[in-house]
Each structure stands twice: as structure tokens, then as C-alpha cells.
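Lab meeting, item 3. Inverse folding demo.
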């Protein structure tokens, strides 16, 4: 997501983290892939294997058929060639989607005022509670890892302060 935002910025295309939230809320997951699904990505790694999924999303109005692909043809032209393998189970029909939404949620709050991404695909959690380690910045988190301060199963109270501490922000 960060790379797409950076690419859009360089190309002077309007794209924000909120766009991902909006899109993810409408576009279902139709590929039954790990970690939440049953299959690894290899079965759909070829162009031909992914075409039935694109065709289903086009028919549902969730993709723009006039978008040009790396082949120079449009998505609609590519999807027209889709031939689904008999009894394949990796790419599901839209009516039997693996998940009704895209599995990404953008959260905003005091710990992430500009937003953060949570991957909820394959999970059925409404609430989650656990100990958390909060660092003032990325450098402090890396230092804790490098110095083996973080121990599995323990939420120790060791404090590391980084050079860019902002009052009131964790």
C-alpha cells in the first residue's frame, strides 16, 4: 500500500489511504489463498489462472474493463479469453466469495492519527486484546530488536527513547 501511494504521488494521481478502505469494503476476496485460505499463491501465479477471477470482478462491475494491461490489451479483452479449469477451487465464484470484503481496514486514532492498515482477511475477530510494546519511533523499535530486549511471551516495561520524541504521541 505504501508503494502504491508513493507511485501515485510521483505520477500526480490522487490516491489516499482512505481510498484503500473504501475499495476494500466493496471488493470481495475471491481467491482462497493462505494465510486465511486453503491454497498457496502458486496455483494462480500464471496469467491464465488469474483470468477467471478478473472476469468475475469485471462482470460484477468492480474492475474497469477498459484498463490497459501489461500485454497492451484491455482487462476486458484479457478476461474474454478466460477458461476456467474444471473443478478448480482456488478462485471462487463471486456468490461464494472467501470473504465479502477485501480484508483491509484503515484505522485512525490517537496511536495512528494519519491512519494505519490492519489486515483482517481470514480472521473473524471483532475485538482483540493483548499486551503491546509501544515505541516512540521506528529507530527505537529496531534498537529493541537488535539488543534482544523483546522476549517472546513477555511484555516487559523496558523503555527506549528515540531522538524524535513528540510530546503526547506514542
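The presenter then showed the designed sequence:
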Amino acid at each position: 500500500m505504501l508503494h502504491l501511494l508513493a507511485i501515485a504521488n510521483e505520477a500526480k494521481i490522487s490516491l489516499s489511504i482512505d481510498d484503500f478502505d473504501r475499495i476494500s469494503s466493496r471488493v470481495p476476496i475471491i481467491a482462497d489463498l493462505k494465510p486465511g485460505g486453503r491454497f498457496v499463491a502458486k496455483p494462480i501465479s500464471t496469467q491464465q489462472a488469474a483470468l477467471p477471477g478478473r472476469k468475475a470482478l469485471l462482470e460484477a462491475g468492480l474492475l474497469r474493463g477498459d484498463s490497459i494491461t501489461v500485454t497492451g490489451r484491455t482487462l476486458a479483452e484479457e478476461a474474454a479469453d478466460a477458461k476456467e479449469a474444471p473443478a478448480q477451487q482456488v478462485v471462487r465464484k463471486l456468490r461464494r466469495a472467501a470473504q465479502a470484503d477485501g480484508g483491509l481496514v484503515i484505522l485512525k486514532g490517537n496511536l495512528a492519527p494519519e491512519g494505519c492498515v490492519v489486515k483482517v482477511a481470514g480472521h473473524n475477530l471483532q475485538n482483540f486484546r493483548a499486551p503491546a510494546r509501544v515505541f516512540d519511533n521506528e529507530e527505537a523499535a529496531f534498537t529493541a530488536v537488535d539488543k534482544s530486549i523483546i522476549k517472546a511471551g513477555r511484555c516487559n516495561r523496558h523503555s527506549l527513547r528515540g531522538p524524535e520524541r513528540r510530546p503526547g504521541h506514542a
